[in-house]
Amino acid sequence: MRIAFAIPGDIDAPSGGYRYDRRMLAELRALGHEVTHLVLPGSFPDPSASDIDETIAALRAADADVLLVDGLAYSVLPASALRQVKAPLVALVHHPLALETGLSEADATRYGAAERSALTVATRVVVTSPPTADTLVSDFAVPREAITVAVPGLDPRWQQPRTPVTPPKIVAVGSLIARKGHDVLLDALSRIMDIPWEGVIIGSNAWDPETAAGIEAMAAPMADRLTLTGALHEDDIRQHYAGSTLFTLATRYEGFGMVFLEAMASGLPIVATRGGAVPSVVPPEAGVLVDVDDPVALADALRRVLTDETLAARLSDGARAAAKDAATWEMSAAAIADCLSGAVGAA
């Protein structure tokens, strides 16, 4: 099968969505398909008119049996323009753009309307978690039978031994953007300064410089305990996991949450929120989840896991056990390939 995988911007950028796309390019090729990486303008999800025209022209000209288009671009392309594309279109939705934290009401409404309209043209839709599928059915009128769930796979290298350092180390991984809730995490950490801990927040500060600057300023008074590393390579993140006591993230919404699964595979107890798909990734046996935007509850959960060795050990065992049942990248790529084949057959 000839597949054109259309992805906006720099595919090497440090985000979970781009990591997923990179891996799927490789895995679909490993399955024997002829996969072309179609590079789209980096202005999405707020493209200029000329970038939209360039994108539609590229989709129309693609020499492929089927087009897989990342939702960062697909979701804001006009339905009338998408209908000009002859090859069947499959949208890859990591999470609905309208649910991004920090949007104005007007922007959220605009993104939501654009995405609903664009999805009416898609022959099939791929999502990365069952909760995202539910959201597309309930809020975006996508027929459930048109949706394929292909969760991120787990690389076996994340299943590693762990030797926590002293004082106990808290690790968080997520870009310095509003959706990741680092402001809430920092508030929570400020409430547990009476017990020993050290912390590290790993994540790029390039996506939203204004938000990143605010987080960095908020973290400054804790500089003797807390380090903001910027984006790190996966090998370096694994090294941090190997010496940590727990993983935390105060995320406001996740379409899946690859970092949670990878931390669990390393045996890290999870302290996080119930944002988006997180409860579908982190079972009660593996972590303590609290409501979004509740720093008091998050601080209490952090304190409990840091000071109760029995609880921490039980959650660590539960995390490793849950990660053993994770899908592989090969399984998820096969699911996408079946979806794409179905789209070709339905065209």
How would you sum up this structure, described in words?
- There is one protein chain.
- This protein has 347 residues and is α/β, with parallel strands linked by helices.
- It folds into two domains: 2-152 and 327-346, Glycogen Phosphorylase B (Rossmann fold); 156-324, 3-Layer(aba) Sandwich (Rossmann fold).
- 43% of the residues lie in helices and 17% in strands.
- The protein is built from 14 helices and twelve strands.
- It has helices at residues 16-30, 49-61, 71-74, 79-82, 105-119, 130-140, 182-190, 209-219, 234-242, 258-265, 278-281, 295-307, 309-324, 329-346; strands at residues 2-8, 34-40, 66-70, 89-93, 124-127, 147-149, 169-173, 198-202, 226-230, 246-249, 270-273, 287-290.
- The strands form two sheets. The chain has a six-stranded parallel sheet, sandwiched between helices.
- Helix 11 (278-281) links the parallel strand 11 and strand 12 (287-290).
- The chain is globular.
- The protein starts with a strand and ends with a helix.
- The model has no long low-confidence stretch (mean pLDDT 96).
Summarize the structure.
This protein is of the alpha/beta class. Helices cover 43% and strands 17% of the residues. α11 (278-281) links the parallel β11 and β12.
